[in-house]
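My current task is to audit a protein record that another person submitted. I have pasted the whole thing underneath without changing anything:
***
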Amino acid sequence: MESSGIVVDGRPVYMAHLVYSEGKYELWTVVNKNVKEQFTLFKESKKKINEWADMYSPIVSMMEDIEENKPNIAWTKKLGFKEVDRTDNIITMVFEKRG
């Protein structure tokens, strides 16, 4: 449905995709692990998620609750997603439209 990304010095550092699947809008992201521009990445990511939420809400993010995902879980919550379910080691978080 929608895609967004950030390129720094000719190198992709972040890619986000919003997809519609099984009756819900889902956010999928990939971040280069060596990102040095954390503030810019956060600011731009938050801006894009807010724009998408104004058009498609709520947005859902799901991930395994495993040690390797702890930074991803923290990042997703920092962006404004709220945890709504934790079943079978899967965390479901939702971002609601501003308002």
Notes: The beta strands are 2-8, 11-21, 24-31, 59-64, 82-87, 90-95. The mean pLDDT is 88.
